[in-house]
Amino acid sequence: MSTLYTVHNVLIQCFFMLVTQQPVFRRFWYPVMPRQQLNGGPQAFDLLGEPLVLWLDEADQAAAVRDRCCHRTAKLSLGKVDQGRICCPYHGWEFNGKGDCVKVPQLQPECAIPANYRVDAYRCQERYGYVWVCLEDPLIDIPNIEEADDLNYRLIQEFYEPWQCAGLRVMENELDLAHPTFVHTNTFGSEEHPTPDELEITETDWGIRVFGKLGVVNPELQQKNLKMGEAKTSRTLTMDWLMPFTIKLKITYPNGLEHIVVNTMTPVSDRASQWCSFVCATIPQPIPLQPM
Q1: 168 closest CA partner among 53, 33, 13, 286
Q2: What does residue 117 show for φ and ψ, rounded to 5 degrees?
Q3: Each residue of 189-205: pLDDT tens digit?
Q4: Mean pLDDT of the chain
Q5: Which of 160, 250, 208 is CA-nearest to residue 14?
Q6: pLDDT cut 90: percent of the chain above it
Q7: Which residues of 14-27 are buried (b: 16+ CB within 10 A; e: fewer)?
Q8: Residue ranges of the chain assigned to CATH 2.102.10.10
Q9: What are the angstrom distances between the C-alpha of 276 and each of 85, 131, 265, 267?
Protein backbone atom coordinates (compact mmCIF):
# COMPACT_ATOMS: atom_id res chain seq x y z
CA MET A 1 0.00 0.00 0.00
CA SER A 2 2.93 2.38 0.44
CA THR A 3 3.24 2.97 -3.31
CA LEU A 4 -0.45 3.92 -3.46
CA TYR A 5 0.34 7.05 -1.49
CA THR A 6 3.51 8.04 -3.32
CA VAL A 7 1.53 10.42 -5.50
CA HIS A 8 -0.21 11.84 -2.44
CA ASN A 9 3.12 12.61 -0.80
CA VAL A 10 4.39 14.34 -3.93
CA LEU A 11 1.39 16.68 -4.06
CA ILE A 12 0.34 17.13 -0.46
CA GLN A 13 2.96 19.81 0.22
CA CYS A 14 1.42 21.94 -2.54
CA PHE A 15 -2.23 21.79 -1.39
CA PHE A 16 -2.14 25.15 0.33
CA MET A 17 0.08 26.93 -2.18
CA LEU A 18 -1.15 30.38 -3.22
CA VAL A 19 -0.95 30.01 -6.98
CA THR A 20 -1.17 33.74 -7.67
CA GLN A 21 1.97 34.25 -5.57
CA GLN A 22 4.03 31.76 -7.60
CA PRO A 23 5.25 33.44 -10.82
CA VAL A 24 6.07 30.10 -12.44
CA PHE A 25 2.37 29.31 -12.90
CA ARG A 26 2.09 32.27 -15.28
CA ARG A 27 4.35 30.39 -17.69
CA PHE A 28 1.95 27.54 -18.48
CA TRP A 29 -0.91 27.31 -20.97
CA TYR A 30 -4.45 27.04 -19.61
CA PRO A 31 -7.82 26.49 -21.34
CA VAL A 32 -9.99 29.40 -20.27
CA MET A 33 -13.24 28.91 -22.17
CA PRO A 34 -14.83 27.03 -25.08
CA ARG A 35 -14.12 28.78 -28.35
CA GLN A 36 -17.81 28.87 -29.26
CA GLN A 37 -18.53 31.23 -26.34
CA LEU A 38 -16.71 33.99 -28.23
CA ASN A 39 -19.27 33.89 -31.03
CA GLY A 40 -21.54 36.04 -28.88
CA GLY A 41 -19.04 38.86 -28.35
CA PRO A 42 -16.29 39.69 -25.84
CA GLN A 43 -16.02 37.52 -22.73
CA ALA A 44 -14.36 38.18 -19.37
CA PHE A 45 -12.23 35.65 -17.50
CA ASP A 46 -9.91 35.84 -14.49
CA LEU A 47 -6.71 33.79 -14.89
CA LEU A 48 -4.43 33.61 -11.85
CA GLY A 49 -6.12 36.76 -10.60
CA GLU A 50 -5.46 38.58 -13.89
CA PRO A 51 -8.62 40.03 -15.47
CA LEU A 52 -8.79 39.12 -19.17
CA VAL A 53 -11.10 39.89 -22.04
CA LEU A 54 -11.28 37.49 -24.97
CA TRP A 55 -12.84 37.99 -28.39
CA LEU A 56 -12.51 37.00 -32.05
CA ASP A 57 -10.23 39.27 -34.09
CA GLU A 58 -10.45 40.27 -37.75
CA ALA A 59 -9.03 36.85 -38.76
CA ASP A 60 -11.70 35.10 -36.66
CA GLN A 61 -9.00 33.98 -34.22
CA ALA A 62 -9.20 34.26 -30.45
CA ALA A 63 -7.38 37.19 -28.84
CA ALA A 64 -6.80 38.00 -25.17
CA VAL A 65 -5.76 41.25 -23.47
CA ARG A 66 -6.00 42.70 -19.98
CA ASP A 67 -9.58 43.66 -19.19
CA ARG A 68 -8.79 47.28 -18.36
CA CYS A 69 -8.68 50.15 -20.83
CA CYS A 70 -5.42 52.10 -20.55
CA HIS A 71 -7.38 55.37 -20.66
CA ARG A 72 -9.78 55.26 -17.67
CA THR A 73 -9.52 51.56 -16.68
CA ALA A 74 -13.02 50.69 -17.90
CA LYS A 75 -13.67 46.97 -18.40
CA LEU A 76 -13.21 46.24 -22.08
CA SER A 77 -15.34 43.11 -21.70
CA LEU A 78 -18.35 45.42 -21.29
CA GLY A 79 -17.72 46.85 -24.73
CA LYS A 80 -18.23 45.41 -28.19
CA VAL A 81 -16.23 44.01 -31.10
CA ASP A 82 -16.04 46.08 -34.30
CA GLN A 83 -14.21 44.64 -37.32
CA GLY A 84 -12.19 42.39 -35.06
CA ARG A 85 -11.20 45.12 -32.60
CA ILE A 86 -12.33 45.36 -28.99
CA CYS A 87 -14.03 48.69 -28.29
CA CYS A 88 -13.98 50.32 -24.88
CA PRO A 89 -17.51 51.03 -23.59
CA TYR A 90 -16.44 54.32 -21.95
CA HIS A 91 -14.83 56.45 -24.70
CA GLY A 92 -14.81 54.10 -27.68
CA TRP A 93 -11.08 53.50 -27.88
CA GLU A 94 -10.37 50.46 -30.04
CA PHE A 95 -7.62 47.86 -29.53
CA ASN A 96 -6.32 45.05 -31.73
CA GLY A 97 -5.29 41.57 -30.58
CA LYS A 98 -1.75 42.78 -29.87
CA GLY A 99 -3.08 45.30 -27.37
CA ASP A 100 -2.33 48.34 -29.56
CA CYS A 101 -4.83 51.17 -29.62
CA VAL A 102 -5.75 51.63 -33.27
CA LYS A 103 -8.52 54.21 -32.95
CA VAL A 104 -9.26 57.12 -30.60
CA PRO A 105 -12.54 58.77 -31.68
CA GLN A 106 -11.60 61.97 -29.82
CA LEU A 107 -8.44 62.51 -31.90
CA GLN A 108 -8.44 64.23 -35.27
CA PRO A 109 -7.73 61.82 -38.17
CA GLU A 110 -4.34 63.40 -38.86
CA CYS A 111 -3.16 62.93 -35.27
CA ALA A 112 -0.93 59.94 -34.56
CA ILE A 113 -1.95 57.65 -31.74
CA PRO A 114 0.77 57.63 -29.05
CA ALA A 115 2.62 54.31 -28.74
CA ASN A 116 1.85 54.05 -25.02
CA TYR A 117 -1.87 53.89 -25.76
CA ARG A 118 -2.00 50.12 -25.35
CA VAL A 119 -3.07 47.31 -23.04
CA ASP A 120 -1.21 44.14 -22.08
CA ALA A 121 -1.82 41.33 -24.56
CA TYR A 122 -1.34 37.62 -23.91
CA ARG A 123 -0.48 34.55 -25.96
CA CYS A 124 -3.65 32.89 -27.16
CA GLN A 125 -4.27 29.64 -29.06
CA GLU A 126 -7.24 27.48 -29.95
CA ARG A 127 -6.97 23.75 -29.22
CA TYR A 128 -9.42 20.92 -28.51
CA GLY A 129 -12.36 23.30 -28.76
CA TYR A 130 -10.96 25.60 -26.07
CA VAL A 131 -9.15 28.92 -26.09
CA TRP A 132 -5.83 28.54 -24.25
CA VAL A 133 -3.95 31.48 -22.74
CA CYS A 134 -0.42 31.84 -21.36
CA LEU A 135 0.37 35.01 -19.39
CA GLU A 136 4.17 34.94 -19.88
CA ASP A 137 6.84 33.08 -21.87
CA PRO A 138 5.63 29.46 -21.82
CA LEU A 139 7.84 26.79 -20.31
CA ILE A 140 6.18 24.05 -22.38
CA ASP A 141 3.58 23.73 -25.12
CA ILE A 142 -0.11 23.04 -24.70
CA PRO A 143 -0.47 19.37 -23.66
CA ASN A 144 -0.39 17.11 -26.69
CA ILE A 145 -3.43 14.81 -26.70
CA GLU A 146 -2.73 12.61 -29.71
CA GLU A 147 -6.16 10.96 -29.69
CA ALA A 148 -7.85 14.33 -30.28
CA ASP A 149 -6.45 14.29 -33.84
CA ASP A 150 -7.04 10.58 -34.43
CA LEU A 151 -10.03 9.79 -36.65
CA ASN A 152 -10.62 6.59 -34.68
CA TYR A 153 -11.72 8.74 -31.74
CA ARG A 154 -14.57 11.16 -31.29
CA LEU A 155 -13.87 14.34 -29.30
CA ILE A 156 -16.71 15.21 -26.94
CA GLN A 157 -16.85 18.38 -24.85
CA GLU A 158 -17.77 17.46 -21.31
CA PHE A 159 -17.65 19.84 -18.34
CA TYR A 160 -17.00 23.57 -18.09
CA GLU A 161 -17.85 24.81 -14.62
CA PRO A 162 -16.30 26.74 -11.71
CA TRP A 163 -15.06 24.88 -8.65
CA GLN A 164 -14.19 26.38 -5.29
CA CYS A 165 -11.14 24.17 -5.09
CA ALA A 166 -7.37 24.30 -5.61
CA GLY A 167 -6.18 22.67 -8.81
CA LEU A 168 -3.54 20.50 -7.17
CA ARG A 169 -6.10 18.97 -4.84
CA VAL A 170 -8.09 17.83 -7.88
CA MET A 171 -4.90 16.44 -9.47
CA GLU A 172 -4.32 14.32 -6.36
CA ASN A 173 -7.90 13.07 -6.45
CA GLU A 174 -7.63 12.09 -10.10
CA LEU A 175 -4.61 9.88 -9.39
CA ASP A 176 -6.13 8.30 -6.28
CA LEU A 177 -7.34 4.76 -7.00
CA ALA A 178 -8.38 4.09 -3.40
CA HIS A 179 -11.49 6.29 -3.41
CA PRO A 180 -13.79 4.87 -6.17
CA THR A 181 -15.17 2.13 -3.87
CA PHE A 182 -16.47 4.77 -1.48
CA VAL A 183 -17.13 7.85 -3.62
CA HIS A 184 -18.44 6.22 -6.82
CA THR A 185 -20.50 3.47 -5.17
CA ASN A 186 -23.58 4.25 -7.28
CA THR A 187 -21.78 4.14 -10.62
CA PHE A 188 -18.66 1.99 -11.02
CA GLY A 189 -17.07 1.63 -7.58
CA SER A 190 -16.74 -1.98 -6.42
CA GLU A 191 -16.72 -2.98 -2.76
CA GLU A 192 -14.65 -6.00 -3.77
CA HIS A 193 -11.84 -3.76 -5.01
CA PRO A 194 -11.06 -1.05 -2.43
CA THR A 195 -7.53 -0.87 -3.82
CA PRO A 196 -6.18 -1.38 -7.36
CA ASP A 197 -5.16 -4.88 -8.44
CA GLU A 198 -2.02 -3.46 -10.05
CA LEU A 199 -0.26 -0.14 -9.57
CA GLU A 200 2.91 1.36 -11.02
CA ILE A 201 4.07 4.96 -10.60
CA THR A 202 6.83 6.65 -12.61
CA GLU A 203 8.07 10.20 -12.93
CA THR A 204 8.06 11.98 -16.28
CA ASP A 205 9.78 15.16 -17.43
CA TRP A 206 6.73 17.26 -16.60
CA GLY A 207 4.67 15.21 -14.17
CA ILE A 208 3.81 11.68 -13.09
CA ARG A 209 2.44 8.61 -14.90
CA VAL A 210 0.29 6.14 -12.98
CA PHE A 211 -0.59 2.73 -14.45
CA GLY A 212 -3.17 0.63 -12.69
CA LYS A 213 -5.84 -2.04 -13.00
CA LEU A 214 -9.05 -1.72 -11.03
CA GLY A 215 -12.04 -4.03 -10.72
CA VAL A 216 -15.34 -2.19 -11.19
CA VAL A 217 -19.04 -2.92 -11.41
CA ASN A 218 -20.75 -2.68 -14.79
CA PRO A 219 -24.37 -1.50 -14.31
CA GLU A 220 -27.04 -1.98 -16.96
CA LEU A 221 -26.62 1.41 -18.65
CA GLN A 222 -22.86 0.95 -18.83
CA GLN A 223 -23.32 -2.55 -20.25
CA LYS A 224 -25.17 -0.96 -23.17
CA ASN A 225 -22.53 1.73 -23.61
CA LEU A 226 -19.66 -0.75 -23.54
CA LYS A 227 -21.41 -3.54 -25.45
CA MET A 228 -20.53 -5.82 -22.53
CA GLY A 229 -23.15 -7.95 -20.76
CA GLU A 230 -21.13 -8.78 -17.64
CA ALA A 231 -22.15 -7.18 -14.33
CA LYS A 232 -18.50 -6.92 -13.33
CA THR A 233 -15.48 -5.88 -15.35
CA SER A 234 -12.13 -4.15 -14.97
CA ARG A 235 -10.50 -0.97 -16.08
CA THR A 236 -6.92 -0.63 -17.21
CA LEU A 237 -5.89 2.91 -16.37
CA THR A 238 -3.05 5.03 -17.66
CA MET A 239 -3.07 8.40 -15.95
CA ASP A 240 -0.72 11.23 -16.84
CA TRP A 241 -0.39 14.26 -14.60
CA LEU A 242 0.77 17.04 -16.94
CA MET A 243 2.07 19.95 -14.89
CA PRO A 244 0.62 21.94 -13.44
CA PHE A 245 -3.13 21.22 -13.52
CA THR A 246 -3.97 18.77 -16.33
CA ILE A 247 -4.76 15.06 -16.04
CA LYS A 248 -5.04 12.74 -19.04
CA LEU A 249 -6.88 9.58 -17.99
CA LYS A 250 -6.97 6.69 -20.45
CA ILE A 251 -9.45 3.93 -19.56
CA THR A 252 -9.35 0.63 -21.48
CA TYR A 253 -11.90 -2.18 -21.09
CA PRO A 254 -11.40 -5.92 -21.74
CA ASN A 255 -13.24 -5.72 -25.06
CA GLY A 256 -10.79 -3.13 -26.38
CA LEU A 257 -13.02 -0.07 -26.08
CA GLU A 258 -11.31 2.90 -24.53
CA HIS A 259 -11.87 6.53 -23.77
CA ILE A 260 -9.59 9.33 -22.73
CA VAL A 261 -10.73 11.94 -20.23
CA VAL A 262 -8.74 15.19 -20.18
CA ASN A 263 -9.38 17.46 -17.20
CA THR A 264 -7.71 20.79 -16.57
CA MET A 265 -8.30 22.86 -13.46
CA THR A 266 -7.56 26.34 -14.77
CA PRO A 267 -6.53 28.57 -11.84
CA VAL A 268 -8.89 31.52 -11.48
CA SER A 269 -7.60 32.63 -8.08
CA ASP A 270 -6.06 31.18 -4.93
CA ARG A 271 -9.47 29.77 -3.99
CA ALA A 272 -11.16 28.93 -7.28
CA SER A 273 -10.55 26.95 -10.47
CA GLN A 274 -12.41 26.51 -13.74
CA TRP A 275 -12.94 22.86 -14.61
CA CYS A 276 -12.35 22.38 -18.36
CA SER A 277 -12.94 18.84 -19.58
CA PHE A 278 -13.27 16.88 -22.81
CA VAL A 279 -13.34 13.21 -23.79
CA CYS A 280 -11.83 11.28 -26.69
CA ALA A 281 -13.72 8.01 -27.12
CA THR A 282 -13.26 5.14 -29.53
CA ILE A 283 -16.24 4.59 -31.78
CA PRO A 284 -17.80 1.15 -31.09
CA GLN A 285 -18.08 -1.09 -34.11
CA PRO A 286 -21.68 -1.86 -35.11
CA ILE A 287 -22.99 -5.20 -33.88
CA PRO A 288 -23.19 -7.54 -36.90
CA LEU A 289 -26.67 -8.62 -37.93
CA GLN A 290 -27.49 -12.21 -37.20
CA PRO A 291 -28.54 -14.30 -40.20
CA MET A 292 -32.25 -14.91 -40.48
Answers
A1: 13
A2: -80, 85
A3: 888 888 889 999 999 99
A4: 89
A5: 208
A6: 68
A7: beeeebbeeeebbe
A8: 26-134
A9: 27, 11, 6, 11
Of the chain, the end-to-end C-alpha distance in Å amounts to 54
Please state, in angstroms and rounded to a whole number, the distance separating the CA atoms of residues 182 and 58. Answer: 51
Rounded Cα–Cα distance for residues 241 and 206 (Å):
8
For the cut 60, the answer to whether the pLDDT of residue 285 exceeds it is no
| C-alpha–C-alpha distance, residues 237 and 255, integer Å | 14
User: Which architecture, in CATH terms, is 26-134?
Assistant: 3-layer Sandwich (2.102)
In this structure, which CATH number among 3.90.380.10, 3.40.50.720, 3.40.50.970, 3.30.565.10 belongs to the domain 143-282? 3.90.380.10
Whole-structure pTM value: 0.87
Residue 13 has what pLDDT?
46
Distance CA 265, CA 245 (A): 5
